[in-house]
Amino acid sequence: MTGTARTQGGQAAVELVVAVPIMLIAVLAVVQLAVAGYALWSAGDAARAGARAELVGGEPREAARSVLPGWLEPGVKIETGDGVEVGVLAPAVLPGVPSIPISATAALDPLASGDE
């Protein structure tokens, strides 16, 4: 093997060592965004379910909690009053990153019609 071939092989190994962690962090960041997006979607669904239950005289907290996936239930906060607000913690995928607080609010008003 010539000196040039050895140098190019060493350079490729160094590039691989640098590229792999960067690609891994990029993939984990995309996964984190997906987890946060799904948590937001789920919180919105739970808030709407709670608002529907509140509108018909049911228990909004129970209805909202029943819609959430199990992995979002720890630390869930459900507030009622003027609508239903559901707050969840999206778990962190990246090491060293704290859980992401996400909340969604829904309110149903049967007297408000969009036909004015």
In short:
53% of the residues lie in helices and 17% in strands.
Task: Summarize the helices and strands and which ones pair or pack.
Layout: H1 3-55, H2 60-67, E1 77-81, E2 83-90, E3 100-106
Helix pairs in contact: 1-2
Task: Give an overview of the whole structure.
The structure is a single chain. With 116 residues, the chain is an alpha+beta fold. It has one domain. The chain has two helices and three strands, in the order H-H-E-E-E. The chain has helices spanning 3-55, 60-67; strands at 77-81, 83-90, 100-106. The chain has a three-stranded antiparallel β-sheet with strand order 1-2-3. Strand 1 and strand 2 (83-90) form a beta hairpin. Helix 1 (3-55) runs antiparallel to helix 2 (60-67). It is rod-shaped and about 75 Å long.
Key attributes of the depicted protein:
alpha+beta; three-stranded antiparallel sheet; 3 strands; single chain; 116 residues
Distance separating the two termini: 83 Å
Percent of residues in beta strands = 15-25%
Give helix % range: 40-55%
Based on CA atoms alone, the radius of gyration comes out at 24 Å
Order of helices and strands: HHEEE
Oligomer: single chain
Strand order of the largest sheet: 1-2-3
